[in-house]
Amino acid sequence: MHRRLQWLLALNLFLFVLFSLGVMTTPPFLTTMDEWGMKTTADSDDQTTIQIARFFSTVTSYKVCLTTGFIVSFIFIYLNKYRTSFFILLGAACSKFISAGLKDFFSRERPLVDSFVSVNGGAFPSAHMIYAVFLTGSLFILFSVYLKRTGRGIFMLGGFLVVGMVGWSRVHLGAHYISDVLGGFFIGFVWLLVMDLLSQKKISNDVRRKDS
Questions:
Q1: Rg of the Cα atoms in the chain
Q2: CB neighbours of 141 closer than 8 A, spacing ≥ 6?
Q3: In this structure, what CATH number is given to the domain that contains residue 188?
Q4: Residues 63-115: pLDDT tens digits?
Q5: Could you tell me the end-to-end alpha-carbon distance of the chain, in angstroms, rounded to an integer?
Q6: What is the pLDDT of residues 171-188, one digit of tens each?
Q7: What DSSP letter does each residue of 60-88 carry, written as one string?
Q8: Are 2 and 198 in contact (CB under 8 A)?
Q9: Taking a C-beta distance cutoff of 8 angstroms, is the pair 126, 183 a contact?
Q10: How far apart are CA 201 and CA 152, in angstroms?
Q11: How far is CA 166 from the centre of its chain?
């Protein structure tokens, strides 16, 4: 299980680096993708999709991510899984610092369109996507304690659907390019996997001691 998570971590880190280099060098494939995304931004007359997009942006704000982290953390304390509790809370709290630091480093300008939400800082990577991935991932880690394999699969599918809607909302509202959203997804997944692996480190060490 740990080896699988490590490979998944390496893959997502590689993809984030790939998109980071793309943001700095603007290759044709990235420019084409981002230009296509800008054609899907909302029209001011389409209030229905604007409200739906705003909903998904609101429920994946930093406040919601941090609040969810607190709740999940306290539940793990109740389950006597203190290490997992600590890293879930640490991951949720530090996700804002990661996004802010990366935004300052890349300093990418926002799309040159009218945004239907207020925006702060650079465009790359999307902070909302980082929050969305960590939020849904934390809930998956919690519920995987209770769910069987089929239930985990359904929950995972639902989580990816929510994250996908968040990505769509940020592009649709004119706040991000598609590459910003994908960069946020990959680095959010990296951060989630790092916290998950650290939370399981003591468990794996205990297993090795018993085997020896």
A1: 18
A2: 72, 84, 88, 196
A3: 1.20.144
A4: 999 999 999 999 999 989 999 999 999 999 999 999 999 999 999 999 988 88
A5: 20
A6: 999 999 999 999 999 999
A7: TSHHHHHHHHHHHHHHHHHTT-HHHHHHH
A8: no
A9: yes
A10: 22
A11: 10
Structure tokens at 66: 């941090």
pTM of the model: 0.90
pLDDT bucket at 152, cuts 50 / 70 / 90: confident
CA separation for the pair 184, 159 (Å, rounded): 15
Q: What is the predicted pLDDT for the residue at 202?
A: 52
Q: Are 62 and 184 in contact (CB under 8 A)?
A: no
Distances (CA, A) of 89 to 37, 59, 65, 100, 159: 34, 18, 10, 18, 19
CA 182 to chain centre: 9
Q: Which domain holds residue 139?
A: 2-211
Provide the token pair at 184: 């946020």
Contact, 33 vs 111, CB < 8 A?
A: no
Q: Half-sphere exposure of residue 188, counting CA atoms within 13 Å on the CB side? A: 29
Q: How many domains does the chain have?
A: 1
CA atoms within 13 A on the CB side of 150: 0
Tokens of 104: 């300052």
Mean pLDDT of the chain: 89
CA–CA distances in Å: residue 158 to residues 102, 141, 143, 155: 28, 14, 13, 5
Amino acid letter, 153: G
